[in-house]
Amino acid sequence: MKQINRLLFNPLLSLVLICLSIGLGGCITTGLPVAVSSPWKAVNLNTNASPLDVSFIDSEHGFLVGSNRLILETNDGGVTWAKRALDLPEEENFRLISVSFKNEEGWIAGQPGLILHTINNGKDWTRLFLDTKLPGEPYLITSLGGNHAELATNVGAIYETRDGGSSWQASVNDAAGAVRDLRRGPDGSYVSVSSLGNFFATWTPGQDVWQVHQRVSSQRLQSIGYQPDANLWMITRGAQIRFNNSPGDLENWSNPLIPITNGYGYLDMAWDPEGTIWIGGGNGTLLKSSDDGKTWERDPIGSGEATNFTRILFPRKNKGFVLGERGHLLSWIESK
Fold it and tell me: Could you tell me the domains of the chain?
């Protein structure tokens, strides 16, 4: 009898018995509440390619690009998307990684070695051939209007054109080295994460070289970007989030936040126009915080998607998208 009592009051055994009584599904918990509603709606892109970037010309007309030469166009604000064809060699499987418009002028950067330019709202695209000595592959392109654009490569080289891509001038004397993530700030500054995630680097227009900064913990960096106030945020392995709220002091970071531990890491973070923080990651992980990261909820639409969410973008006011692998896309529908 004593042996039976010991078994019954064993905490581990009690947990097993509870799980068995409610089924295996009830044993798995993320530790976060599920939001009552969601501002996101799943969009069927009818493709297995992975969307990688989105840019809009106006509130209704935009383009989405991705792997396997994916280019889609919308004329209804992203509710529906139609496939577009590009005049590219069939034998080359381009990865269209970045798209950017300013008014009717747009640019696409792809790999390997691809730059496309349009001056008529994407109706026609012209391929520009880059110098074979260009360090690295195109990674991020920014349309600045009037035949003016900025190109960053996957080794942190930054180039600028003011003649529609006929010529490019280097903006930085030394590349940052191979990167896993690279973002451009609203003032033209850049931040990048090294390919191994062991340091990050920053560059501000006018500087000759990238400024290298060591990571703030033993956890390797996953991604890094800009908060709405232009300060930085970072995501590290182990699903940790940190914020830099000390302008000019990039060694001063907040304590790590770990909203959820479910075995899947975070891949991107963004703020919607209402100030809510969104985090996307593996296996349909999509979390939100409406109080600057103090509390978090799981998004019910995101958790139903069998994909890894790689990017969260708000390209225009009241326009947002969550990009997932293998043709998954969520569109933000909360505000009008």
Answer: 31-332 (2.130.10.10)
